[in-house]
Amino acid sequence: MADYVLAIDQGTTSTRAIVFNHAGEIVETGQLEHEQIFPKAGWVEHDPMEIWRNTREVVGLALTRANITSTDLAAVGITNQRETTVVWDKNTGEPVYNAIVWQDTRTQKIADELAGDEGAEKYKAICGLPLATYFSGPKVKWILDNVEGARAKAEAGDLLFGNTDTWLLWNMTGGTDGGRHITDVTNASRTMLMDLTTLDWHEGVASDMGIPLSMLPTIKSSSEVYGEGRPKGMIPGIPIAGILGDQQAATFGQACFEVGMAKNTYGTGNFMLINTGEEIVPSENGLLTTVAYKIGDAKPIYALEGSIAVTGSLIQWLRDNLGLISSAPEVEDLAKTVEDNGGAYFVPAFSGLFAPYWRGDARGVLVGLTRFVNKGHIARAALEATAFQTREVLDAMNADSGVDLTELKVDGGMIANETLMQFQADILGVPVVRPKIAETTALGAAYAAGIAVGFWSGQQDVTDNWAEGQRWEPQMDADDRERTYRLWKKAVTKSFDWVDVDSE
C-alpha cells in the first residue's frame, strides 16, 4: 500500500519536491534553485528547460532521501509560481522563448493599449483582475508579437501556453508523446483569459489579446486525476491528481475552508487570501477576485487576494545587489542591532506597486535618510516594508469583506524571522499565527492530490491535521502604530510617477 504523497512546488526562485505522510508531516525534501535572468531593467525570465531538469532531479533527491521509490506514492500534486508564462512548440517540446516571470514589467504598454479609453478595469467583471503586467495573458501576447515566427506557429496550432504547472504536467505525462495539456481553475484564473463565472476561456478577451484558443490548456478542477507519470519518467504510472497555484495551495494547506478565513504567505512576494465561499466578490479597494480552489465536481470556492510584488526578494536584493548581508537569515541579526528604523522607510516598488495601488509607474525608494541612518536601520526598514505592505492589504480586505480579521495565519520562508513576525503583529494590531507545519504551499498541493485518490477522505482531514506552532501578540502602543503607518503611507507616495517616456 502507498503510504505517501509527493508535492512538487515549482516556485519563483527554486523547485522543491516534498514527501508527506498521512499526518501531513514532511518526510523528506529535495530543492534546487534556478537562474534569475534579467535581460533589461524590469524584465525577469526563467529557463523552462532548467526548471524541468531541476524538477526531475529534486524528485529523485526527495525519494532517495526518504528511502522510498515511486511505487510508495499514492499520488503527486503540483503547486507553482502563478502567472509565469511558458510558450512552447508541441511538436519539439522546446520553448519558443524564456518563461516570462510574474514580476516582469515589459507588458505595461500592452496593458495600456488594451485598456484604451475603458481603463485598467476593462475586463474585471469577467476575470476579476485589472489590466496589469502581473498576469499571463499580456505576456503571451508579447511573445507572439515579438518572437520571430511565433504568431504564425500559434495560428497554425503548433504552440502551447501554460503557467509552470501546465509545463511540468505536459512533460511529466509524456511531452511530445501524448503529454496532457491541462491547467486547474486557480492557475487559469490568473491569466485574465478565464471567465470566473463559467470557468471557461473567454473568447472575447483571448481575441482582444490576439491569443488563439488552440494554445490554451484544458481547465480542470484542483483535485482530480489529470494523467499518470510517463512510463520511463521519474514517477511511472503514478497519478498526478492535484494542481493549485501556490497561494491557493497555501490557503488550502492552512485549512482556510470557512468564509472569512485568511492566510498570508511570505515568499518572494506576499500574498494574502480571504475565503469568500461560493460568492464572487468584486473588490472596491484594489484587491483581486480569484478562484481559491475547486475539489472535483464540487462548486468552486472563491477568494479575494492582495498581491504584493516584493518582500522576500527585497532581502535577496540586499544580499545579491548590495552585499549588505551574505545570507538571507542575517538580515534579522542586522536589524536587531538598532531599536527602530531610524526614520528610514523602504518602498520596494521594483516591479511597480501591486495591491492595493496597481501603479506600474512606481519604482523603489528609500526615504527619510539622515546621517544617523546606518545599515542596521536599512535592514530594519526592509523587513518593516513587508509588514507595512501587509497592513495595507489587510485594510483593503477588511473594507471589501465587511469583516475585520481577528488573527492572521502566516506561512512561507520569511516567517522564520521572529523580529518580522512581532512587528507584523504590532503594525496590524491582531495576533499572527504560524502553523506547526510551515510548508503549507506544498502541503496544500499534496492534500488536493491525496483527496482525489482517496488517500485523505476530504477537507476534514486537512483541518484535523492543522496545528498551531507559534503565536505573536501585538505589543506596540496604538499611537506609535498609527504614527509609523502614516509615515509609511507618505513614503509610498514618493514612489509614484517615476516611470515616464525618458526613463523607459
Structural description of this entry:
The protein is of the alpha/beta class. The chain is 32% helix and 21% strand. It is built from 16 helices and 21 strands. A seven-stranded mixed sheet has the order 15-16-14-13-19-20-21. It has a six-stranded mixed sheet with strand order 3-2-1-5-12-11, sandwiched between helices. Strands 4-7 form a two-stranded antiparallel sheet. A hairpin with a 3-residue loop joins β13 and β14. α10 packs antiparallel against α12 and α12 crosses α13. It starts with a strand and ends in an 11-residue tail after the last helix.
| Dominant shape | globular
Structural class: alpha/beta
Number of strands: 21
Biggest beta-sheet profile: 7 strands, mixed
Strand content: 15-25%
Gap from first CA to last CA: 59 Å
Helix content: 25-40%
Instruction: Let me know the average pLDDT.
Output: 93
How many helices? The count is 16
The side-by-side strand order for the widest beta sheet comes to: 15-16-14-13-19-20-21
Q: Rg, please? A: 22 Å
The low-confidence runs, each spanning 5 or more residues with pLDDT under 50, are none
